[in-house]
Design brief:
By secondary structure, the protein is an alpha+beta fold. It is built from seven helices and 15 strands. It is elongated and about 65 Å long.
């Protein structure tokens, strides 16, 4: 099962399921970003339903230069689900028992540890697992994916570059969370880029705007053409005659959705440098800023040669969900994808 356009709405459902334990001080969650523990007995794990569950969370992510899965899965049976494992950051508990009269899926937060996401599947029989996963799959992935995003944002908020955030807001009219490792930046007419650099990667944020004329400007073809034009003009490559372009060997995927009643076009794919060897993944979100009659695109992209990119791109991508136009009142970090087309 591939993570294709039909599944690009994993963040489209803002789940309100929660069961918060406030009576005790919870420990910090265990594991690394992208880890998922499945508590499941071996006979269920080896069933067709078990295969469906594995395939759901191990499908490939679109827009990466090589195969990386949505989550890194480990599993244990209920007998070995000891206390140290119960604090894992993301857990799915598949409980099969004749005591259940019908299948039920329970979504919980902060059950055994802080920021934990916990899904319990209560099933009368092993054969119930496959249809339940097929029905609830998008909600399950969305629920776990949102947990990853919220952890990244919680950390970023502790170490934000407030001075740069204010400068971006004042100059291009975009209010968003910007971490303090973004220390290099350039402001030009209707274009801003910011860079965070380490020995392993270069992380970028780019923001650009242009006049709104028609909805047709937000088609996949026109978004790519505009992106290529803007990036070529503003981000030259390191070699003479080199410039950034959208890679078409793996064509970008466009997802359209409504965010709090406003249209958003998300483009996800690979960028490359013409006449050079650099490249990597990117994610952009484009909105219509109606009061200013303009289109605004906020994009994150990554250069991390020879490195796995899923988690770093996921960190960057989380910043897109703090974006609002300067005149909007929506709190940072509350964006969701709604009413996906």
């Amino acid at each position: 099962m591939k993570y294709l356009k039909t599944f690009a709405g994993i963040l489209s459902l803002l789940l309100l399921f929660s069961c918060k334990n406030t009576s005790v001080t919870l420990p910090t969650p265990g594991g690394r970003a992208g880890d998922l523990l499945i508590v499941i007995d071996q006979n269920v794990w080896n069933s067709p339903g078990g295969d469906t569950l594995k395939n759901l969370f191990q499908q490939d992510i679109v827009g990466l230069p090589w195969e990386e899965t949505l989550f890194d899965i480990s599993h244990t049976d209920h007998q070995n689900f000891i206390r140290i494992l119960q604090t894992a950051r993301s857990i799915i508990d598949v409980d099969v028992s004749k005591t259940y009269s019908q299948p039920k899926v329970i979504y919980q937060k902060d059950l055994f540890s802080k920021t934990q996401r916990f899904i319990k599947l209560q099933l009368p029989s092993v054969s119930d697992l496959k249809p339940v996963v097929e029905k609830e799959g998008m909600k399950m992935v969305s629920f776990m994916y949102q947990g990853e995003r919220e952890r990244f944002l919680a950390n970023y908020r502790k170490f934000s570059n407030k001075e740069l955030m204010q400068k971006v807001k004042d100059t291009i009219g975009v209010d968003m969370l910007i971490p303090n490792d973004f220390t290099r930046y350039s402001f030009q007419d209707n274009f801003v880029w910011m860079l965070a650099k380490s020995n392993d990667y270069m992380k970028y944020i780019a923001i650009y705007s242009y006049d709104y004329k028609s909805q047709n400007q937000l088609s996949e073809k026109n978004l790519v053409a505009t992106r290529d034009s803007v990036m070529r003009a503003n981000i030259p490559g390191s070699r003479p005659g080199s410039y950034m372009s959208t890679g078409m060997f793996y064509p970008p995927v466009l997802t359209q959705f409504m965010d709090h009643g406003k249209y958003v076009a998300e483009l996800r794919g690979i960028w490359e440098t013409v006449n050079d060897m650099m490249g990597g993944p990117f994610v952009s979100q484009t909105r219509i800023d109606e009061p200013s009659n303009r289109i605004v695109t906020v994009e994150v992209f990554l250069y991390a040669p020879e490195q796995n990119k899923r988690n770093t791109l996921r960190e960057l991508e989380s910043l897109l969900y703090t974006v609002k136009m300067a005149d909007e009142e929506k709190p940072q970090g509350t964006q969701t994808k709604e009413n996906e087309e």
